[in-house]
Amino acid sequence: MCLAVPGKVLDVQGDDPLLRSGRVSFNGVIKQVSLTCAPDAKVGDYVLVHVGVAISVIDEQEAAETFRYLQAMGDLDGLDPESAPREAPP
Question: Is the backbone of residue 51 left (phi > 0), alpha (psi -120 to 50) or beta?
Fold first, then answer.
């Protein structure tokens, strides 16, 4: 089964919509992710990432809920489920 995992955008590189990328934190595990399919993503946003590509921008509540589901399913290998998104919205 293929899953999309929520993460928080830490920074964004590039101006070209087809080449934009960013560092995304998945509970402290930071990966470089393509933002091509989520052109509106900006620093502080939560995105759903599938195979290294952010496929959509989601709100913090949805990110936390998705993380809880993935944790319950045992699909968070390599990620620390203790630090699921808990920050208060700005």
Answer: left
Range of the domain at 18: 5-74
Is 83 part of any domain?
Answer: no
86 is a domain residue: no
From the DSSP assignment, how many helices (H) and strands (E) are in the chain?
A: 1, 5
The whole-number pLDDT of residue 52 equals 95
69: helix, strand or coil: helix
Looking at the domain assignment, is residue 84 inside a domain?
A: no
Dump pLDDT digits (tens) for 29-78.
899 999 999 999 999 999 999 999 999 999 999 998 988 888 788 766 65
